[in-house]
Amino acid sequence: MSGGVRMSMGMCLPCLSGAEDDVVTPDPETRRRQLADAAEKRQKEIIYRGIKNPEALERKKKKQEETEKQTMNTVPSEGGGLKVHKLFTFSTN
């Protein structure tokens, strides 16, 4: 081979020779954070798939939750829940 490029079996590109020496592995905490960020990004992509404006959807959800909380707070505590009706009365005569 001309040019002084040393190649080993399976290495057909000079830029790949010694590539494993150049790899810098981040510390475990940084790697964990990167993996967590990537997982969160994938989850958001799955959730918002097909939605044109995800920010507007989030605002709408928050507004709806606030409205539900206000409704729950304005309902009087006495008689405001489910009503229970007596269907049968048993006597022990």
Automatic annotation (TrEMBL):
Keywords linked to the UniProt accession: Lipoprotein, Myristate, Palmitate
Entry coiled-coil feature ranges: none
Keyword Lipoprotein: yes
GO CC terms: endoplasmic reticulum membrane
Membrane-traversing stretches: none
Pfam families on file: SVIP (PF15811)
GO biological-process terms attached to the record: negative regulation of ERAD pathway; negative regulation of retrograde protein transport, ER to cytosol; negative regulation of VCP-NPL4-UFD1 AAA ATPase complex assembly; positive regulation of autophagy
Domain of life: Eukaryota
Record's compositionally biased regions (Basic and acidic residues): 28-47, 55-69
Protein name as it appears in the record: Small VCP interacting protein
Lineage of origin: Eukaryota, Metazoa, Chordata, Craniata, Vertebrata
